[in-house]
């Protein structure tokens, strides 16, 4: 960094001195979320310097710069808010505006310098990259491996937290906490299969035509924590919450509302064995399909954030690039659809929850039984997610409560939960009752996600339960 420091103000030097580097980077140019590895340590150092210089210029209130330095140097959350405007789309003075060209794996965007209209999504731009301000500076000074704003939660004392959607946003990195993955209580399973309580089974939607819904549709699940979402004009519409009333009825009882004590069935003197949840090395597996034909190899996701896009990177653990895949049976409709996948979808696995964010210029369509149950929709409902919006598509705690409830119903009820662990998602073209295509296998390009952690948990529970109560023989 010595080559850039002689022209750097002392306060910027001091702030840069507190920059965090990723583990294993050797302390040199590790930078923001691994971008340094892609662009060289020197270029990364220059980018960090520009980000800090730009922030220093924007901190015009008396004492804010001192407060920022105090917070970073003492690692103290008992400091004041350090705020910048949240609605300045060209906060970094790039003037002519830029066009998004490519999204890297860290949530920072690369921008081309083509003359276009000024960027309107409200993210901060620093030398051809842009991102949410509190994410940028939390990544700079606290967590180099930070991927998304979903991973952050403001402390109670922060008056200008990102989720409050005020005219100013706090960028004090010690006013945010990392969202922790909740520990799921074990499910208590009887040694031998016995139906203890008669409860209605999951709806069978194998042969039904899916209903359709649009997102955002003013849905706000009761009593559940909703991740911090961007204010209007600050980022593309997030879609997690809305002031409108939901146009479909919500179920009053949600699995997420169950207490940990409900994770054990009524014992009736049975010998109950605890079956615990454990995180696998690969949190999900993704298969790509064109119509009813599987194409390419399965992608195994090890990173908490990944994108499925239409580009051609062959060796990135955080990207599943569909543009690489060939298919001799591909028709013109599939070819045209593939061209419109573009930046595709970003999937996050954070705090035991899975989110899907539409990065494409075209909508994506999601069928998630777990999500549908949360909002009181039919299990087969297909939800349209417009560009710039995201949706929580799976919640481990809700699944845990449902699993514990299903143990009371016996082997078959637990086995049915495998459907909950599979999520289907199509690009550009939708399917369902409101579309010409009524099955996912009629859509040109789609993917199927298998959530490995819940599936492995189901496997352990089913193994403990033994076998179905209804025997299957050669004569049945």
Automatic annotation (TrEMBL):
Main location as per UniProt: cytoplasm
SUPFAM superfamilies: SMAD MH1 domain, SMAD/FHA domain
SMART domains per the UniProt record, alphabetical: DWA (SM00523), DWB (SM00524)
Protein location: Cytoplasm; Nucleus
Family: Belongs to the dwarfin/SMAD family.
Name of the protein this chain belongs to: Mothers against decapentaplegic homolog
Keywords: Cytoplasm, DNA-binding, Metal-binding, Nucleus, Transcription, Transcription regulation, Zinc
Pfam families: MH1, MH2
Single biological process term from Gene Ontology: regionalization
InterPro entries: Dwarfin, MAD_homology1_Dwarfin-type, MAD_homology_MH1, SMAD-like_dom_sf, SMAD_dom_Dwarfin-type, SMAD_FHA_dom_sf, SMAD_MH1_sf
A GO CC term attached to the entry: heteromeric SMAD protein complex
Keyword Metal-binding carried by entry: yes
CDD domains listed in its UniProt record: MH2_SMAD_2_3 (cd10985)
GO molecular function: DNA-binding transcription factor activity, RNA polymerase II-specific; I-SMAD binding; metal ion binding; RNA polymerase II cis-regulatory region sequence-specific DNA binding
Domain MH2: 283-476
Residue ranges with Polar residues bias: 242-252
Residue span, MH1 domain: 10-185
Gene3D superfamilies: 2.60.200.10, SMAD MH1 domain (3.90.520.10)
Annotated stretches, region: Disordered: 232-264
Source organism of the structure: Dicentrarchus labrax (European seabass)
